[in-house]
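Exercise (ungraded).
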Amino acid sequence: MSDVPARTGPPSASRWALIYVLLTPAVILPLWVGLYDRVDPTFVGFPFYFWFQFALILVAVALTLPAYLLAQVADRRDRVRHGLPPVPDGTGSDRKAGDER
Amino acid sequence: MIDHVNGVVFAVFIFLFLLVTVLGFAAARWRRADLDSLDEWGLGGRGFGTFIAWFLIGGDIYTAYTFIAVPATLYAGSAVGFFAVPYTIVVYPLIFLFLPRLWSVSHRHGYVTPADFVQGRYDSRGLALVIALTGILATMPYIALQLVGMEVVLQVMGIGTTSDTWFVQHLPLFIAFGVLAAYTYSSGLRAPALIAFVKDALIYLVILVAVFYIPSQIGGWDHIFSTVTDGFADFNATNADAIAAGDAAPKAVMPPQPLQWAYASLALGSALALFMYPHSVTGVLSTRSRSVIRRNAALLPAYSFLLGLLALLGFVAIAAGVKVDNPQQSVPQLFEDQFSPWFAGVAFAAIVIGALVPAAIMSIAAANLWTRNIYKAFINRSATHKQEATQAKLVSLLVKFGALVFVLALSKDFAINLQLLGGVWILQTLPAIVIGLYTRWMHRWALFAGWAVGMAYGTWLAYGVKSPVQDHFGGPLVNFPGTETKVYIAVVAILANLLVAVVLTFVLRALKVDEGVDQTRPQDYHADAGDPGVEEELSPDVPAHA
């Protein structure tokens, strides 16, 4: 992320690195067709090619959930670094405030 | 013209369809919105929470594409048809990473469309204009796919197929078009949001019955896969000469080794393209806070499972002995053959509503683009709210006419090719939008040039693809330049686009060409609901601000 200055952040940067590590298999494995493009072993009648891709859906969900929790924390730290309070303080609910800016 | 229509099927279908239509019109009164203002008509007016957003975004993604187009490719033995499953796996990590940033910056600055963001980030009306035009253009073939989906269901029900006259032949298409146009015109985004609940309830019911009941009737998945494999092998043996001569495509259950890259590139290209579409952006921006998007990225794969099982209905239809000339009729025909008439009616209604909802969302999003980024930016800068809302409604109709033209002009044997053509175009907006979310390094004119090259090159490549039924725009795959490896055109075009954009950025920066003023600050990409300046509701009425 280009607008994350290096000096600020092992905490948030390493969390983001971990998020990327978690999410990368969810992108790479489905695109690595040579890995699963075969018939055996079959599972309840499904060739490997098909059941493996269904299994990848579950893998993707299993990886996204921890990534979500990590991102919640990383977001808070990113916010602080960019001069925002860790969680929104509610002052923005008035639309007028937005229009004046 | 209505000869062999089954009364029960038709009655159940019409009942559910009318129920949904009434809901659609009632949606206009939901929360007593003022639909004369574009705000209410175009974005639903209020922030959607996780639950509604799940249905709404799901409605964008799982469409006639899922029920008709993808199973048709499997039925026809296209080796790469199942790419829709990796596509819908890969798309969620991308949503997870990119879209929260787009949400934040858009709500901070009142951006309603991707073109608003590009205008604010790059200070270029020209670049914003082409982003808007690309969005409108690319949406049309995607809506066309929905129209084809509705059409084949009506055909299988027996409407309009037995006549010789041009009009009656296309009657199912015109009916589909008319219904879609009527109800989006009157209730805007509220209609699809409310109907999405009915749609998803119906679809889950139909899919669960279809994927468990039908295979068991036919002899189980083992039997289905072996029947299909043998059938394809027979086909390839009988047609060996035609295949060798290139007049017929060999059939396959899974991609042979040379097509692995085609499979992967179709999945990746479609995934990258999906959240460039204006309708995906509309859905994402109508959520209440940025965490809603991430939560949805973890929840939406539930639909991918259904998509995969539905895709396999193309094989189920083969094993069940369904014989149709148009592969896209295979799933509706399977339902009619296997289900009792009343449940076939339910299934048909589910498919048609499942095409109607996304088509409505797509045309509304395209209309938003027109009104904000073309009409108000170039044609009538001092437009009143009423004028804007009128423009949006008219353009949502025009976009549907555009879709109709795509249906009538191009071969609809594989409507999925329509959607993939739209993908070629919309993907060319990726550098300006996604890279722009992370860095301002790219120069605005380099992005413009990259876009132009990607659009021209991609369209030219698509124009040159022949299929057995048409000379141009016959399919989504070309040989990667300099190789014999087939890949998705969109991926080739985006690489050309990026290459031009990067090289020209170096050149323009070296020449110190004016790069414009960036309205956004790094902080804006992290803002959430409740922060100062963050609009809870995005309103197309309110111009984007610095």
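Further reading is listed at the end of the chapter. For now, observe: DSSP finds three helices and no strands in chain A. Chain A touches chain B through 53 residues (CB under 8 Å).
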